[in-house]
Amino acid sequence: MNVPDLKNVILPKLLSGVRDGLPLDAIGATDCLQALALTGQALRFDRPRHPEQFQVEESVVDHRAILPDAARKLVLRLLSGKNPASGPLAAAIVRTLAERKFRLHPFDLPKLEPFVKAHAESLGAEALAFSQRETPVAQKQNYFAPEQLNDDNWMHASPAVKAGYIRTRRASDPDAARAMVEAVWTSESADSRLRLLEAFREALSEKDALFLKGLEKDRAPRVRELAQRLLVRLPGFDGDDPNLRAALERIKLSKAGLIFKRTALTLELPATVRDFTKMAWLNETFGPVGLEPLAEALSLPVDDMVAAAEKQSDLLAAFLFMATRDRRLDVVRTITDRHLRDSWEAFSQFDAQMLADYSPDMRQLWVEHIFRPDRWAADTSPWTIRQTAQWLDGQATEDLFSAIVQSKPWHSLRKDNGRYEADILDSMAVMSPSSMRSTLRAELAALEPAKSGNAVLFLDLMDSLETAHA
């Protein structure tokens, strides 16, 4: 008697009924109960058949430290409660976890699934693997922390991380960075190609000309347009620049003054441009044009060109867009200090993507030049605070934050008896530097708890993370 006999002879009879009796002689049993017991024991120790093929999941290694318990509880309250954190708070949490090299507890990933899926690329290898657990193997993304990238693996990272790596390499070795991009160009998506090309703003030189000219037939219109804008900014470019030509067609140069003649610039808007589309038209027409090429075409130094437009607020806004794209913070400051008192309004229709290639320090300076809380009037919308936080994308300096707390829109918001959105309070929490959190808590204590609750929890979380990281 052996296991195959019990399975092949006795088990079918037991399953179908034993009215015809069991073949006890075949297995050497004396009665039915003994046969039943032997069959049961045989099934206990019988191993299942091996599958013909295996699919082995790669193990995920995430070297970030798990959130401390105190911070973990606050994250769960903020992101999985009945009143989940707003977009600005969620983005700030992701940014802070990345900066301090913390990761979510594995047990919390299912509880925070919507948040994890929205920010998986920034939350670490474990979160990315969780978000892609049902994604086909061929479509899964690899996770590479920025500090783990090198010239051999950079192309396997996410588009944003790849662009950041190439931007860094452009700063140290432009030729090597260009060669790496050329090697993978045809295999990249349109969005990834655009991001990589944006990185060429760093250390742009005549050596990039051949590569940029080759993009004239790229299948993505946005890539072709950006390549053309970069090409015309190369030193010594002598070809046609349609963007510069279009801008010059709208500027009239004249002489003003009775005794001392000075140059004056006037902007002529198309008849089809209305007030609500004016800023978009100015950015579209003048944004792609560099300050230096335009000043050279007008035979003026950049500073004189700005001064010549002192009474033309629309033209000054156009110069402001150009200076922003050129990262000429000195020109940005000149325009906002001397000419445009309400410069923040020019950017109300745009998003912070315009500062995508700014470093955090440059972004802070730009925001301080553009958004002037001391100039905000009582009728300035409190949403300007939200706008400031969007462009800043991080903590404000003590001077800027103190000015916001003392600004008229913030004081009017406190007197408005609930006629404000929680997003504005969340934006204040995101911008608050650590030294000003106690001040902001005192300000929030006077407001509706239902609207200020998440902002206070966020401040507690930031304190907890800084303590754990110390």
Number of DSSP E strands: 4
Strand % is under 5%
Low-confidence stretches: none
Which of globular, elongated, flat, extended, rod-shaped describes the shape?
A: elongated
The biggest sheet amounts to: 2 strands, parallel
Provide the number of structural domains: 3
Describe what you observe in this structure.
It is built from 25 helices and four strands. It has 470 residues and is mostly helical. The protein folds into three domains: 3-45, no CATH class; 144-238; 242-469. Strands 1-2 form a two-stranded parallel sheet. The chain has a two-stranded antiparallel sheet with strand order 3-4. Strand 3 and strand 4 form a beta hairpin. Helix 10 (190-198) runs parallel beside helix 12 (221-232). The model has no long low-confidence stretch (mean pLDDT 88).
List the helices and strands and how they pair.
Elements lengths: L2 H14 L7 H4 L4 H14 L19 E2 L2 H12 L6 H13 L2 E2 L9 H11 L1 H7 L27 H14 L1 H11 L5 H9 L10 H5 L7 H12 L9 H7 L2 E6 L5 E6 L10 H9 L4 H7 L4 H7 L4 H14 L2 H10 L21 H11 L12 H10 L5 H8 L2 H7 L7 H10 L5 H8 L4 H21 L1
Parallel strand pairs: 1-2
Antiparallel strand pairs: 3-4
Helix pairs in contact: 1-3, 4-25, 5-6, 5-25, 6-7, 8-9, 8-10, 10-12, 14-17, 17-18, 18-19, 20-23, 23-25
